[in-house]
């Protein structure tokens, strides 16, 4: 199996400075004429053949400087075009290929979605359109002419529209068929992965944005007809993103027009093609009756993310795909910051950390662990991972923590100035910060090169006589594939002191006990851990205090401390850092769940381990505390998810025991909090039925729905009736779906009729049906397996649409620990069957499903055996794609 290595990077021997494309659209016979202006690169090896990439291409013809090429001068296959002896001065090469977009089920290259033509070129899709140096370090200026029958109403490509009109009907088409064309020019050199073309009979919503230098930008969002009423939130999010990037990062938009197209068949979330973003419609369309508050927040975040790529990704791009985190980590960091500014910063931080723990930590602790900047891959599509994206963003956040807001901004400004228009590396990125801030980041750079989640063990003690608090932090990092031992990392630990009465406690100075140097005064908020065992002494600590460590989750690590339960309770009640208040609650609940699970696995019954009254009191106090944001209180109500508990336990994991432990804790909490849950639920009822999507309104709904859900854990009929009424009285999808989900997950008998009613009401709304599919697939009950099998042949399901597949099978494998990890292996078998079937038409989506096997080695032996059997079955399937083979083989290693 061929692999690509970072160390093998060499530039192409030729540059392609200009690309002129003419695309004559037809479902089964699209012709692409590509005229490339090519020149040997200075210093490139002389007389090297020109080898261009292709994938599944049908070659039609080739001309060199206008003359038809002799057969002996080139070779062309579906995978390559080779010009054997290229001229050693600038020349043009015209290549014609023929495509069948209608038959393109992989959704890479040019394909059709609901009758419209669209493209997806990242990472290696452009080579499915025409032969090219399909790699990010070849930057070219593109002119594109699109031709199609006039029924294909809009003809769109990157850049600015420079010409359009009717044309004579091409040969071979009925004479009375009217054709038209449009010509687009993108003045900014770009790599092929940012090319885009969209054409179809779509509806267009228009708006404008005036940049801070006074340029008037046209904004267009294209959607399917009939969906125009769901675009307002996306448009508003786009305008706020454009303004925010000017205000916070001094980045102004650069073309005259910015377009977004929403399509219903898309492998991922969205794509940042220059000036023409293509979106999975899930991340564009929203109205209160069909989209939840979570959808609203996701849309805002994804619109911002793709827009921010215009600078971090498009204007400055990656030298090679190993540098993916250069654009993705930084852009996720930017979109997280945007959402924090638009909404509540602590609430956003908590939800980002929840996501990191749920997705990245399992990746980092299993067989698929890899560096933020990997050094080898066999299929690049499998590296669009949580490690590259979310951990990549954490690395940027740590840089900001270490350098301060101003230092970080200075480094980024230098990066933008120095590398605009170039394809660069992580080393270039880091050097910008080193130079702007005069710091040495060589040890910090290990975050890009070392996989695995570091473990920190912090031990503190207080010496009243000396008024000193000493803190010792030991770091280690578990082995990961290919990296048995790890170097010592540079880890920022944000901290503060909290007195036992809850008040903040000061100190006079911070001494690095390893070097004996004073490293900070009373305003020091960050400890820089640079040694395996790093000890600090805080002087002038006048009273006993509890260290609040890793505030704001200042590094993506796993922290253990010698803090007692009482210490955590104190932090939970009083820490000035809201993140650590939430974290303290999570720690206590996690500890309880781990102990309870262990007891259950050892044969105890569910009520073996009672929850301490002091914990209940502390939780209740936070829940009822009106000075805290609703959304934050809603987050406090959420118990650690089952997969997080499994990872905390680490080995011999029994998902059934975890589920039982968690359910029994929910029941205990619900019972102990009693009527106060429903009283608060009722008090939060907003009589104003007009819908507002802002963060504060969403927070109120989140808390109210969370209270109802916890109350339902008692499984009382009266509360079930309340939930049913909640469903019927709901004026928006958030409340409606929350009631349906709570009734379903809590296995209330009323759920089934409501599930049917919900389906009947939204049959024609695929994005709502996705919620219906994933809710059923996530239900932990025994019957779910059969229900999922039945749903595979339901008219609302289609294996051809990635959103449907993710909603049903993805949700089953990702959100249903109990049923996916069934002891009888039937859960693994079902998912493996789907992976094998889907692989034939859409390997990328199939490989993403296969990722769900990543934690199999932590399971107890019986389940491990079942998972391994299915992984082997997948790996041994004939004609398996490279995408799925790569994941299955790495899982098995
Ligand atoms: N940069 C985009 C990545 C992406 C993608 C990658 C592989 C295959 C299909 C894809 N669609 C989009 C999305 C982003 O991170 O902004
Ligand atoms: Zn991105």
TrEMBL record:
SUPFAM superfamilies: Leukotriene A4 hydrolase N-terminal domain, Metalloproteases ('zincins'), catalytic domain
Limits of the Peptidase M1 alanyl aminopeptidase Ig-like fold domain: 452-561
Cofactors required: Zn(2+)
Domain Peptidase M1 membrane alanine aminopeptidase: 234-444
EC code: 3.4.11.2
Keywords: Aminopeptidase, Hydrolase, Metal-binding, Metalloprotease, Protease, Zinc
Top EC class of this enzyme: hydrolase
One biological process term in Gene Ontology: proteolysis
One MF annotation (Gene Ontology) recorded for this entry: alanyl aminopeptidase activity
Domain Aminopeptidase N-like N-terminal residues, every copy: 20-194
One Pfam family hit: DUF3458_C
Catalytic reaction equation(s): Release of an N-terminal amino acid, Xaa-|-Yaa- from a peptide, amide or arylamide. Xaa is preferably Ala, but may be most amino acids including Pro (slow action). When a terminal hydrophobic residue is followed by a prolyl residue, the two may be released as an intact Xaa-Pro dipeptide
Span of domain Peptidase M1 alanyl aminopeptidase C-terminal: 566-893
Family annotation (InterPro entries): Aminopeptidase_N-like_N, Aminopeptidase_N-like_N_sf, PepN_Ig-like_sf, Peptidase_M1, Peptidase_M1_dom, Peptidase_M1_pepN, Peptidase_M1_pepN_C, Peptidase_M1_pepN_C_sf
Gene3D superfamilies in the record: 2.60.40.1840, 3.30.2010.30, Neutral Protease Domain 2, Peptidase M1, alanyl aminopeptidase, C-terminal domain, tricorn interacting facor f3 domain
Origin: domain of life: Bacteria
Family: Belongs to the peptidase M1 family.
PANTHER family reported in the protein's UniProt record: PUROMYCIN-SENSITIVE AMINOPEPTIDASE
The protein, known as: Aminopeptidase N
Organism: Cohaesibacter marisflavi
């Amino acid at each position: 199996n061929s692999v690509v290595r970072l160390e093998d990077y060499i530039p192409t021997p030729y540059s392609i400075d200009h690309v002129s494309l003419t695309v004559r659209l037809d479902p089964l016979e699209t012709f692409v004429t590509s005229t490339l202006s090519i020149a040997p690169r200075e210093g490139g090896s002389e007389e090297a053949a020109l080898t261009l990439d292709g994938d599944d291409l049908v070659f039609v013809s080739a001309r060199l400087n206008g003359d038809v090429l002799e057969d002996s001068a080139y070779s062309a296959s579906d995978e390559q075009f080779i010009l054997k002896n290229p001229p050693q001065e600038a020349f043009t090469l015209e290549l014609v290929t023929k495509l069948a977009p209608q038959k393109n089920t992989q959704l890479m290259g040019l394909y059709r979605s609901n009758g419209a033509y669209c493209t997806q070129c990242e990472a290696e899709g452009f080579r499915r359109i025409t032969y090219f140096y399909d790699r990010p370090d070849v930057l070219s200026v593109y002119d594109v002419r699109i031709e199609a029958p006039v029924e294909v109403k809009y003809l769109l490509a990157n850049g600015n529209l420079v010409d359009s009109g009717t044309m004579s009907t091409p040969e071979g088409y009925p004479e009375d068929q009217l054709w038209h064309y449009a010509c687009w020019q993108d003045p900014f050199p770009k790599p092929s992965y940012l090319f885009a073309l969209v054409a179809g009979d779509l509806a267009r919503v228009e708006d404008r944005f005036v940049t801070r230098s006074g340029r008037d930008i046209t904004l267009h969002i294209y959607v399917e007809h009939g969906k125009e009423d769901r675009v307002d939130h996306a448009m508003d999010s786009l305008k706020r993103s454009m303004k925010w990037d000017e205000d916070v990062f001094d980045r102004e938009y650069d073309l005259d027009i910015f377009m977004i197209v929403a399509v219903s068949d898309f492998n991922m979330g969205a794509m940042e093609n220059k000036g023409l973003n293509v979106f999975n419609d899930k991340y564009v369309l929203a109205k209160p009756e069909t989209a939840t508050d979570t959808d609203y927040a996701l849309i805002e975040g994804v619109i911002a993310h793709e827009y921010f790529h215009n600078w971090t990704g498009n204007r400055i791009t990656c030298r090679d795909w190993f540098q993916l985190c250069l654009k993705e980590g930084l852009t996720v960091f930017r979109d997280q910051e945007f959402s924090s500014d638009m909404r509540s910063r602590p609430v956003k931080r908590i939800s980002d950390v929840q996501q990191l723990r749920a997705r990245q930590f399992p990746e980092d602790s299993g067989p698929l662990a890899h560096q933020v900047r990997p050094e080898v891959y066999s299929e690049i599509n499998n590296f669009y991972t949580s490690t590259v994206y979310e951990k990549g963003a954490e690395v940027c956040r740590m840089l900001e923590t270490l350098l301060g807001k101003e230092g970080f901004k200075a480094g980024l400004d230098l990066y933008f100035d120095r590398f605009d228009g170039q394809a660069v590396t992580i080393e270039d990125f880091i050097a910008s910060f080193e130079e702007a801030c005069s710091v040495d980041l060589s040890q910090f750079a290990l975050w890009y090169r070392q996989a695995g989640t570091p473990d920190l063990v912090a031990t503190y003690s207080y010496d009243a006589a000396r008024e000193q608090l000493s803190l010792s932090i030991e770091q280690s990092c578990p082995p990961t594939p290919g990296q048995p031992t790890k170097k010592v990392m540079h880890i920022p630990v944000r901290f503060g002191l909290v007195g036992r009465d809850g008040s903040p406690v000061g100190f006079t100075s911070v001494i690095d006990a390893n070097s004996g140097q004073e490293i900070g005064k009373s305003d020091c908020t960050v400890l820089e851990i640079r040694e395996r065992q790093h000890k600090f002494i805080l002087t002038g600590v006048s009273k006993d205090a509890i260290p609040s460590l890793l505030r704001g989750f200042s590094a993506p690590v796993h922290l253990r401390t010698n803090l007692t339960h009482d210490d955590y309770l104190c932090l939970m009640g009083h820490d000035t850092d809201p993140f650590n208040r939430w974290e303290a609650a999570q720690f206590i609940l996690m500890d309880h769940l781990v102990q309870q699970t262990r007891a259950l696995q050892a044969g105890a019954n569910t009520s073996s381990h009672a929850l301490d009254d002091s914990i209940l009191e502390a939780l209740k106090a936070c829940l009822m505390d009106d000075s805290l944001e609703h959304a934050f209180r809603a987050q406090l109500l959420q118990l650690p998810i089952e997969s997080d508990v499994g990872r905390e336990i680490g080995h011999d994991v029994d998902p059934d025991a975890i589920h039982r432990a968690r359910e029994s804790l929910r029941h205990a909490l619900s019972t102990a909090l009693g009527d106060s849950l429903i009283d608060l639920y009722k008090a939060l009822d907003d009589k104003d039925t007009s819908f507002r999507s802002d963060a504060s309104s969403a927070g109120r709904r989140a808390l109210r729905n969370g209270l109802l859900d916890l109350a339902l854990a008692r499984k009382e009929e009266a509360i079930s009736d309340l939930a049913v009424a909640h469903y019927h009285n709901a004026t928006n999808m958030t409340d409606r779906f929350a009631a349906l989900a709570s009734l379903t997950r809590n296995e209330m008998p009323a759920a089934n009729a409501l599930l049917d009613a919900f389906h009947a009401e939204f049959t024609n709304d695929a994005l709502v049906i996705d919620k219906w599919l994933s809710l059923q697939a996530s239900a932990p009950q025994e019957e779910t397996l059969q229900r999922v099998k039945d749903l595979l042949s339901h008219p609302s399901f289609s294996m051809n649409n990635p959103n449907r597949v993710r909603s049903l099978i993805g949700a089953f494998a990702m959100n249903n620990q109990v049923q996916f990890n069934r002891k009888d292996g039937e859960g693994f078998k079902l998912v493996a069957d789907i992976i094998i079937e889907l692989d034939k038409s859409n390997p990328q989506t199939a490989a993403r499903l296969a990722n769900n096997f990543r934690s199999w080695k932590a399971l107890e032996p019986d389940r491990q055996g079942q998972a391994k059997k299915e992984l082997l079955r997948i790996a041994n399937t004939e004609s398996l794609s490279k995408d799925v083979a790569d994941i299955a083989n790495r899982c098995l290693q």
